Amino acid sequence: MTEEKIVVVDFGGQYNQLIARRIRQLNVYSEVVPYTVSLEELARKEVRGIIFTGGPNSVYRDSSPKIDPRVFSIGKPILGICYGAQLIAQLLGGKVQPAEKGEYGNTTLYVHPDSRLLKGVEKRTAVFMSHTDFIAQVPKDMAVTSHTDDCPVGSFEDPTKGIYATQFHPEVEHTVEGETILKNFVIDICGCKGNFIKSSFIAEEIQRIREQVKERKVLCALSGGVDSSVTAALLSKAIGKNLTCVFVDHGFLRKDEAKQVKAIFGPDGLFDLNFVAVDAADLFYKKLQGIIDPEQKRKVIGNTFIEVFNTEKKKLGKMDFLAQGTIYPDRIESGLGAAATIKSHHNVGGLPEDIGFKGIIEPLSCLFKDEVREIGLQLGLPKTLVYRQPFPGPGLGIRIIGEVTKEKVKIVQEADAIFREEVKKAGLEYRLSQYFAALSNMQSVGVMGDHRTYDYAVVLRAVETDDFMTARPSRLSHDLLSSVADRIVNEVKGVNRVLFDYTSKPPSTIEWE
Ligand code: XMP
After folding, report:
1. Which residue in 249, 324, 379, 402 is deepest, having the highest Cβ count within 10 Å?
2. Mean pLDDT in the chain?
3. How far is CA 81 from the centre of its chain?
4. How close is the Cα of 161 to the center of ligand 1, in Å?
5. Ligand 1 within 6 A of CB of 505
6. What digits encode the pLDDT tens for the residues 268-300?
7. Is 114 helix (H, G, I), strand (E, B) or coil?
8. What pLDDT sits at residue 353?
9. pLDDT attached to residue 343
């Protein structure tokens, strides 16, 4: 597929896929591999450079993930980030120890002169730090190339050996000059040309799918989100009527969402495919009765999804392949990586193979979200669908704190629809990365007319982010927020208070559960 690539060796950090993403933005192909990768793999000709990622462990513990030190002799430039930097320091004879005070978040970095990795970076620059251990001593002959007020080694390098390391995270957008730093590594130091092109993707995938499927049948799990919609559109172009798309409405979709999906993919829609819509709301509500723990809720929704899907599959008769809208970040989150589980993601991208298919088709599994969007537009999907904000597989189920009931779902659906309408009216629809209403489980006292009320508080959340791994709250105007709040309390029964969630991720997450 490519003559040059950067391999990202995964030590379990939360931002690992982002590193690969940033490198692809430089038009260089990049892959994340587990830290157990063989040296032969890393020594392959097309590998132009290696990056060791961050991770939650301490390098000085025996149980922490390590790599064979012979990696330093295979002749490829290496960049260590955070844990990766500490690992390099430790393996080459430096010293890593717990810090008295950890550094988290935005930090000022003081850059020393003559660094090859930090070439072109301002003398004082903002970086994102997240560490409790620190490098107390760099290995012999390595030059310290930056520091912060609390951390004596912000980065170090030995260009003659092709070794570079940063304690901070250049891949995270809060590191203002992160792109320059990664570009210095990938283009200047590793010598990549940056000519990875995606223009032939559709033609090549159609050809590949036809060769794989031949005259057999494919069942595509369709949620109506960007990823599964693009997958369905691509498959429809490749195999036409041999494709059947199954859309499951679990009852916690946004207002009118099921109608919109049916309009695009149903018999009068844009594609000539077999489309099956399943209304499984009653079953989902029944299974979720009495469940309040967020992780349990996610698991029940995921399992019920599989149950419904299985039932439908039996009705449809012989289906040889299952197609899913898995994209590259999903692959890393579900097992390829070593990152800690923050939330169990359950969506149609998580159906197990053991429900009896000969094979799985995941045409987008090498692409990131914005690449998928580009393909969607090329396939002729409407902009409103392609640029839809992400919507989680478990739907409003994880935007309702406490037990999920029909009454609560109706409240969030209505409040969310009002919020979306007002955001659109304000012209911000495509400017915000994600915005929605959630239902806190809190009830409080209010007054409506001459009556006391004891109703729910709706929470509005609006964030801006490139990568969804970190996010900032959007600075919506007071006028906009007041009109949304007024409309919600006036139009949505059961709500007497509206709050705005002003927290960043981290430490919050985007969804409430
Ligand atoms: P968090 O809440 O982890 O969300 O900050 C980050 C992004 O992931 C989406 N999300 C999910 N998407 N299935 C999905 O398909 C899930 O279970 C799930 N949980 C969160 C979330 O909407 C945000 O865009």
Report:
1. 324
2. 92
3. 20
4. 41
5. yes
6. 988 888 999 999 999 999 999 999 999 999 999
7. coil
8. 64
9. 65
Listing DSSP states for 255-273 in one string gives TTHHHHHHHHHSTTSSS-S
User: Residue 192 is encoded by which pair of tokens?
Assistant: 């990549």
Neighbours of 386 (CB within 10 A): 19
pLDDT for residue 348 is more than 80: no
Q: In this predicted model, what pLDDT tens digit does every residue of 36-90 receive, in sequence order?
A: 999 999 999 999 999 999 999 999 999 999 999 999 999 999 999 999 999 999 9
- Give the number of the atom of ligand 1 that is nearest the alpha carbon of residue 390: 24
- The first and second tokens of residue 494, run together, are 């059961």
Query: Ligand 1 pocket, 224 CB below 6 A?
Result: no
Residue nearest to atom 20 of ligand 1 (CA): 392
CA 146 from centroid of its chain's CA atoms: 30
343 lines ligand 1 (CB under 6 A): yes
- Residue with the smallest CA separation from ligand 1 atom 17 is 345
- pTM given for the model: 0.72
**Contact yes or no for 26/183 (Cβ under 8 A):** yes
Tokens of 362: 């995941």
Tell me the two tokens of residue 351.
């159906």
State the Cα angle at 485 between 484 and 490, rounded to 5°.
100
Catalytic residues: 82, 169, 171
